[in-house]
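Hi V.,

Quick status before I head out on leave. The structure for the redesign project is tokenized and pasted below; the design run finished overnight.
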């Protein structure tokens, strides 16, 4: 690894993964408070509940209790610059979430102490594991009835196959939750004071005993001694490789344990990592700027119909006004007003470094997965498309607006709201989504932003696969003989659609020279 320039070494780019209701919003708010990014606790929540300036599609998200804040929040603390990337809170696993996790170097996993590992946490964790993202665990809501710490640690180890290293241990729980005990340093942090942690002689220290309900004291002492003996110590390398998670206990609501967590991120979480591109690994310390777009957000400000492309900078330094190459098209573009995002504000970024996420306002030039460089022809991996699980044909209520619909769908597909498939037999466009919520979002947005009321109709297809072959003639032959089941995606790549698995398998068996894939790596446009 090349040495990192000092500003890059200070960057910590991370996300919070959790099941809805575990406390992600509350924790975000408290983290931002530490960073001085917002003055007032409650700000993030207030945004979540604000109705006035939200466009309609955000209305849907609100109704369903989904938090939409901004996609990235930057703040400084303890000499580090933190970039917190918001993972959308949909119940549905969406591609958006996956893409966001391609842009972070570490993650905080928030677990509700009464519930343990829940479905969505597990799913998000699996995505992190695919990229060996180091995870810091926060067991939240210790001020409520909680499961035993051993029980929770055991569940993490068993269900996620992830080693745990508890750093702190809760002193009681629920109403009598008094604070945490640092297992290795014998320090006590109390919930009822803002004072720095104080040192004690060990788990038997009488100062500790006075914090515990008398009937719990003996059992607690034994438990802690066992934890000190039996639990794995924190190991930086195992953490960085994604095999071991340090665990902290606390209460986001009471702003307790949050400081330990952010200190852990500052000390242990990795600075920007090298990123895989198609031709080589790009190190964060390289001098030339490169980055990829992992998210496009429209309508962030209803007064300006702008689209913001969020780019993770992978290497070098971005300077406002610099000229870069959009590798997909080979065309140059100027970064005239790259932006940083804070809890509520945005500001022009005069310069930004590897690890930072900047918003680039544009009118449709940039797409999800795009790579920008200072000239080199590389494409970052890791922003793939997944074969949608739901396919629908779009029925326009006003048939005169077909052209407008085509343009609107193209835009929505470029933003990653839906995938668009144009059947080769000339029939109407088919949209594909991974989660049903995306269909509602598309419908709302087409109506609100383009004045295009639509309905959905079922198609006879339920599965689609990207097809490729080593021999282009084989591919052409297949396409020719299956025209009524073929479509083209946004990049003009051929897609085979099947009514069911049985039918798909039949074709897979018959055409050995064709590869049927349910994931498509981001590609440069075919020349
Ligand atoms: P999410 O973003 O992960 O969905 O969770 P969020 O922070 O919105 O928290 C979900 C609920 O849990 C909220 O209560 C929040 O106040 C509560 N909560 C979060 N952290 C803690 C904690 O450490 N201790 C306790 N006791 N509660 C916590 P709510 O009633 O749904 O919302 P609100 O009316 O309080 O805003």
């Amino acid at each position: 690894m090349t040495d990192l320039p000092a500003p890059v070494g200070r960057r910590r780019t991370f996300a919070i993964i959790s099941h809805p209701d575990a406390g992600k919003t509350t924790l975000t708010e408290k983290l931002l408070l530490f960073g001085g990014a917002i003055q007032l606790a409650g700000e993030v929540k207030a945004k979540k509940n604000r109705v006035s300036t939200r466009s309609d599609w955000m209305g849907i998200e609100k109704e369903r209790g989904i938090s939409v804040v901004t996609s990235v929040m930057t703040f400084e603390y303890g000499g580090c610059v933190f970039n917190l990337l918001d993972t959308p809170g949909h119940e549905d696993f969406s591609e958006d979430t996956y893409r966001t996790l391609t842009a972070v170097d570490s993650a905080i996993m928030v677990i509700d102490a009464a519930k343990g590992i829940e479905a969505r946490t597990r799913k998000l964790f699996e995505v992190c594991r695919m990229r060996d993202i180091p995870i810091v665990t926060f067991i939240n809501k210790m001020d409520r009835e909680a499961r035993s710490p051993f029980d929770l640690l055991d569940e993490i180890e068993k269900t996620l196959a992830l080693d745990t290293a508890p750093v702190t241990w809760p002193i009681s729980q629920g109403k009598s939750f008094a604070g945490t005990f640092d297992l290795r340093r014998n320090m006590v942090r109390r919930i009822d004071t803002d004072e720095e942690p104080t040192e004690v002689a060990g788990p038997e220290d009488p100062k500790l005993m006075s914090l515990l309900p008398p009937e719990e004291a003996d059992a607690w002492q034994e438990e802690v001694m066992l934890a000190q003996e039996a639990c794995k110590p924190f190991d930086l390398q195992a953490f960085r490789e994604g095999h071991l998670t340090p665990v902290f206990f606390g209460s986001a609501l009471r702003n307790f344990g949050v400081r330990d967590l952010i200190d852990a991120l500052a000390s242990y979480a990795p600075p920007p990592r090298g990123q895989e591109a198609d031709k080589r690994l790009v190190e964060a310390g390289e001098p030339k700027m490169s980055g990829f777009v992992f998210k496009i957000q429209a309508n962030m400000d209803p007064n300006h119909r702008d689209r913001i492309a969020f780019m993770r900078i992978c290497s070098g330094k971005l300077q406002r006004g610099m000229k870069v190459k959009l590798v997909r098209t080979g065309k140059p573009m100027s970064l005239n007003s790259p932006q940083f995002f804070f809890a509520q504000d945005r500001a022009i970024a005069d310069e930004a470094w590897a690890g930072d996420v900047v918003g680039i306002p544009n009118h449709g030039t940039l797409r999800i997965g795009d790579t920008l460089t200072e000239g080199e022809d590389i494409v970052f991996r890791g922003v793939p498309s997944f074969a949608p699980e739901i396919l629908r044909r779009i029925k326009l209520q006003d048939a005169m607006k077909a052209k407008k619909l085509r343009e609107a769908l193209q835009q929505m597909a470029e933003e990653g709201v839906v995938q668009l498939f144009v059947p080769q037999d000339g029939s109407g466009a088919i949209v594909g989504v991974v989660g049903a919520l995306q269909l509602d979002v598309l419908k709302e947005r087409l109506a609100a932003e383009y004045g295009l009321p639509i309905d959905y109709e079922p198609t006879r297809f339920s599965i689609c696969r990207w097809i490729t072959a080593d021999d282009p003639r084989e591919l052409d032959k297949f396409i020719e003989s299956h025209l009524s089941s073929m479509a083209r995606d946004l990049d003009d790549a051929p897609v085979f659609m099947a009514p069911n698995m049985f039918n798909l398998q039949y074709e897979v068996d018959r055409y050995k020279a064709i590869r049927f894939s349910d994931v498509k790596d981001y590609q440069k446009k075919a020349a």
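Above is the designed sequence. The CA atoms of residues 17 and 183 lie 25 Å apart.

G. will cover questions while I'm gone.

Best,
W.
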